[in-house]
Amino acid sequence: MSVLYDVEPGQLCEECWLPVASPAVARQGWRSLVWCRLCAKRVGLSLIADEREATLARDPQPHWRNRVVAAVRHRLQVEERLPAA
What we know:
With about 80 residues, the chain is mainly alpha-helical. It has helices at about 35-60, 60-80, and strands at about 1-5, 25, 35.
């Protein structure tokens, strides 16, 4: 990841598909990805949460799996705005 100070005119954010203003966040790989500052923050936090969830799910002790299930349930309820069970 790096800060992109020269955004091409008409460049769209990978997440919200709105035009990106400089400075933006970019990822160079087999394909260039560019995010606006707000989406870059949201994507970064989501990646950190997903990595933690994957790490906990790999733990052989069942209490970690239960915590992961609870975390996933909570996240889905928040994202889908469902009432808590």
